[in-house]
Every structure is written in C-alpha cells, then in structure tokens.
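Appendix B. One record, verbatim.
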Amino acid sequence: MFRQRPLRSSLLAVAAVVAAGGGWLALAPRPADAQQMQGGAPMPWQQQISGALPIFGTGNWVVIASTEFPLLSVSGVETIRVPDGLGAAVNSMEGIFQMTSRLRPTFHVASELDFAAQQNDDAKTYLEEIGKILPQIGVVKMPSEDIVNKIIDAAAKRRVLVIKTDSMIPYGSIAIELGPGFWSVEQEQALRDAMKKGG
C-alpha cells in the first residue's frame, strides 16, 4: 500500500495563486510541497486536480496511465501516483470535466486495447467499464505508440500531467487532449474556412 503523492512542481502552486486572485507573475520559485493537507489529512488527488484545472488550457494533456506507461524524460511532463485503479481514475476525470464548460476533453484510447481484451479478462472488463464512462463523441482510437509520440510532441511546448495508477491492464492508458469547451471543432473549421475565403 502506498501513500498518495500530491501534485508537485508548479501545478498546485499556480492553482493556489489563481485561487487567491494572483497570476503567473506572482509565482516565485520554491521547493515542491512535501504534502498537500486539508484538515490534517491528505487532500484527495481528484480535488488537487480540480483546483489545478483553471490553469490548464488548449493543448495541455492529462494521461491516466497503467503501470506499463513509461516515465517520460521530457521536461514538460509531470507524473504523480494515485491509489485508484484505471477505471476509477478515468471515471473521476470524466466527472471533473463534466463540471466545467471551459475545457473539452478528447480521449485517446489505444487501438490495441480491443485486441488485448480478446486475450485478457482484466482488459475485457476494463474495456466494458470505460465504454460506459467515456462520452459517445470525443473518443479517438489509435496505436499506443502514436499516442505517446503525440504526448511527447505536446510536452515540448505545453505541460502534460500523467496520473499513474497501479493497474496492470495491457494498453489501458488513456490520454486526454484538452481543447476549449466554449469553441467547438466545427466552429474552428468554419472560422478557418472563412479566413481562407476572405484572403
């Protein structure tokens, strides 16, 4: 059994400043907090992320990872460990996104998972579970290597948060790309088309 590790680096620091009405310029370099506490007890990771979400925006990623997901050496990636399984973590994140209209998540699921579910009972159960959790639209399936490469590319310019679970489900990791909830893909395409026509 492990103890939950709080979000470190600048994420919670920025969230605290935002909540206090400050901004990026109010942040000063400081050591990572050893423990985020609430009433003498560790703050649930879901609450930590809910508090940090106001600083996330278009192009940021959140990855809900199984044990096989690599520890990425890219400087823009922060990894935390949580005590929940994959299904519970995915459910928590989907619930968090439902509470905000500011961000629109696109869920990237490894295409290998469908085939792993044919050989592994845990993968089959998990696939059925996320089928009930994830929305009907906004889910993209692609090879796991392509998903990792997209995350690495994004981390070169934007922050990525990896939520590492203890689940041992082959190809179970889900990568969530964030976009604006108040501006749809269709609206963006219409804008680009209008710009082309307008010269």
